[in-house]
Protein: Phosphoribosylamine--glycine ligase
Amino acid sequence: MSYNVLIVGSGGREHAIAWKLAQSSHVREVFVAPGNAGTGVDATNVDLAQDDHAGLIQFAKNNDVGLVVVGPEAPLVAGLVDDMQAAGLRVFGPSKVAAELEGSKVFCKNLLRSADIPTADYQTFRSPDDAMRYIKDRFTEPSDPVNVVVKADGLAAGKGVIVCENRSQALDAIDRIGARKEFGAAGKEIIIEERLTGPEVSVLAITDGETILTLPAAQDHKPAGDGDTGPNTGGMGAYCPAPVLDEETLARVESGILVPVVHAMKRSRRPFKGVLYAGLMLTPAGPKVLEFNVRLGDPECQPLLMRLKTDLAEVMQATIDGRLGELDGLEFDERPSICVVMASEGYPGEYEKGHPIKGIADADAMENVKVFHAGTKMVDGNVVNAGGRVLGVTAMGDTISAAKLQAYKAVAKIRWQGAWCRKDISDKALVSVSAT
Structure:
């Protein structure tokens, strides 16, 4: 039996999901709401906002939609899955109460502590004055090294996390989050936690609340500049697999982090179904949780789905039905893949929109290359930049070096005014390989 699919969202993750689901023998047509210029080619865009719950539900009912996939975190936290399920639709993604694992860092940290899951020590504050007093009581001089991370509690598009090296930076971070409300309502509570050291890695898993299917580890690149310098972004590139995470450590992550979290969510009457994304720091004391997300990461999703050979529609339907245990695992292409994000000039700060983009078709025509759109739209027949992160140029190769070379060859074919990218995506993997 075939059916139509509706994907909610407009970023690179949603383009990758649409591209992969369109390959399923079960899927007739893929709709994306609201989508971007790329999903308009690989699927059919629908002019509905991701917060228009009633409109999305009505569209799904009118168009024989047998699977809805909610891509971004905001509609998950807002309860779109619950509303769609109440309307009798089949939806892949966690419920509103389960999505609080990402929607509230305070909730997440408290759950990790109660389940004895390794994470950084932390304190939470409802008042910026109390948070400032905490820092001032412990560090008396402006230049005192503090090595803490100050976080906004709620969703902040990946930007509400400020790493601080001295007292002045910590106080300024608290002021930005709690007093100036730079991240809006996300700053209603503040977390101050110890700064962990070690390589970061992302481990994503699909779970139906009983069975956990772990995906190959990926490594994101959050800072804007080469060598992990500059301000944090939503992610400037990723590669998969990440050799820094060996099989033994991955097994520790599954048994000591993923399984306990799924059990803890069930005990707290928030059973989790969907994608569980663990952002980890590989510390000298072992892997520790930095954060949990409740959806596919962007840009980790792009190299992961580029390698996935199993029918994604079947996996999502099995998750909805609680049948993941019946599947014979997941199959991935053995070749590594790399995604290089091309961004607008000025990102992650202010940037100009509306510049025509050239060369996407030339890059897409290359062997083992797929250009996933994120911040794009069609204007007068031209693809233009419409966001900070604009494209995710993704490539596979027999080795990480070969995949990197192919990805950057594709990047070189694409141009628009102010386009830029990091030049060192996946170099961490080469260091990891040479160190083993």
About this structure: The chain is about 35% helix and 25% strand. The domain at 3-96 is CATH 3.40.50.20 (Rossmann fold).
